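stuck on this chain:
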Amino acid sequence: MNYKAWVAKAAKQPMVLETADLEPLGAEEVEVAVEHCGLCHSDISVLNNDWGISQYPAVLGHEIVGRATAVGSGARGLAVGQRVGIGWNSGSCMHCPQCMSGSHHLCQQAQATIIGHRGGFATHVRAHWAWAIPLPEKLNSAEAGPLLCGGVTVFSPLAMFAKPTDRVGIIGIGGLGHMAVKFAAAYGCDVTAFTSSESKFDEAKKFGANHVFSSKDSEAIRKLAGSFDLLISTVNVRLDWDAMIGTLAPKGRLHVVGAVLEPIPVAAFSLIMQQRSISGSPTGSPTDIKTMLDFASRHNVTPQTEHFPMSNINEAFARLESGKARYRIVLDADF
């Protein structure tokens, strides 16, 4: 098979196009011809080895949409020609307590799609059949890629912790946050957006936010004390965490999905006296992803995207890293 991929040879280096041979397809694997692949900030983190776990050479890309071109003899529920999506994980052990109870994404042996595995910036990608999720017919497949990682990452805490009657705050209106606002609004919540960029105030309201505040305005944030049932942080920068935690209502929850590298300082009494919680989560299980895609299809929730041909991958990475993307970049396969 003529397999081509954009390969990162080392940290912080431009990707180069290479051709390679693939191993025989595993019995429980599915092979997917890539049509579109979203560009996530996690791809930049792995390219730059920000987390210290990257493996080179690396084929990045984990918001993959394409059609199944081969299905292993032990695969279930998929057929050649079916359009599917693959996200952050492309496999898990399928026998540990987490997998057996439906939390496959918490499996200690979960296979990240772009670490020690060839990702989606390629002609083809492979995954365990359980992690290749059929796309709803109504969903625009060219726009669906970012839902498979960023989308489920922000949808999962809403599904776990929010009710339609809740007041929900979203911190950061970027690649993750703008989808969080759309999902929370579609769910029926009263939505408040926090952004450091005043240029995004009007856009946040168009995405469905009822209220918008600057995440840099500690005085305004403190006036919101006791307001939110759920606060979802999508950012990876330092905030006035004391003020943010103070905006939680009694029994409110701050849920972290943005990979902030610095510790979050917490005053114990701020949690104890109001019975507040702080939690976090990664993406989601195959069932979580399917549920999110069905919800997105039903409510017409799609990310706001910019499209580049995959041959312009290095320019696309530079645009995302500069902070100019509005709000997710999707690379269209043009091999």
In short: The first strand starts at residue 3 and ends at 7. The chain has eleven helices and 17 strands. The mean pLDDT is 97. Residues 11 and 47 are 6 Å apart (CA to CA).
